[in-house]
Amino acid sequence: MTEQTAPVSLEEFNHRLAEISEAMPKRLRQCAEFVAQNTDRIAVSTVAELSAGAGVQPSAFMRFCQLLGFSGFSEMQKMFRETYAQKWPDYATRLENLRASGADSPSALLAEFVEAGRLSLENLASSIDAGLLEEAVNVLAAAPMIHIVGFRRAFPVASYLSYAFEKMDIPAVLHDGVGKLNPRHAIRKGDVMIAITFAPYSQETIDLAAYARGLGNPVVAITDTMTSPLRRIDALTLAVSEVDVGAFRALSATLSLAISLAVAIGAKRDQAVQ
């Protein structure tokens, strides 16, 4: 891999990361995956903190920055700070008053999760690819059957979509793995799959999505990073990231995306029958 000029925007950075991450050595790929999942931390963390989070030495993290085209970590951090400066919360100090009541009190935790949800929603609104979203709606609205898969943290999103489609009389199958049953043979040519998974990624979801793509069927992916394995199967990818509170990540932005997707599909199908 040759050295490149530094990205000047978050969009350019994400494109570069997706472009070269597959060919990276193991340690640098760890850096790529950690950065892709934690873009909100780059502007405010030290290289020591980020390398520890990625499980690599600071020297490996520095090499990762250089591979992306930056002179070092400072230049990469500068780009992130300039990008996020415009979105920095105006009223964060209001929440600080609540947090001050106790680091782990219920009201402080609520304030933390509310703030994390707000930041996640703002990031979704500013980063979602409107063209991809519309394409996903068009593909799903035309599907004779929608198959939905999502396990562990993604399961609430998958089950909500199944519920919403059922209420709108949209044919859909939720692949939930109950009883260790594997209804993959219910997937027919022309059906469309919605696959939902987040790092560290569910192998069951990846396998089922790959099976659907092997049949030539479209897959709409709701996932979190530029290095998500669902991108490798040429899925129509809707990227969403959640700001964490400690080690916990809520689903504020992801559920908002799912609700929007379901309602838009229902409206599109209604238009088609009028």
Automatic annotation (TrEMBL):
One of its GO terms (biological process) is carbohydrate derivative metabolic process. Residues 11-87 form the HTH rpiR-type domain. GO terms for molecular function: carbohydrate derivative binding; DNA binding; DNA-binding transcription factor activity. InterPro entries: Homeodomain-like_sf (IPR009057), HTH_RpiR (IPR000281), RpiR-like (IPR047640), RpiR-like_SIS (IPR035472), SIS_dom (IPR001347), SIS_dom_sf (IPR046348), WH-like_DNA-bd_sf (IPR036388). Residues 136-272 form the SIS domain. Keywords: DNA-binding, Transcription, Transcription regulation. Pfam families: HTH_6 (PF01418), SIS (PF01380). PROSITE patterns: HTH_RPIR, SIS. Transmembrane segments: none annotated. It comes from the Bacteria. This is RpiR family transcriptional regulator. It comes from Thalassospira xianhensis MCCC 1A02616. The lineage of its organism: Bacteria, Pseudomonadati, Pseudomonadota, Alphaproteobacteria, Rhodospirillales.
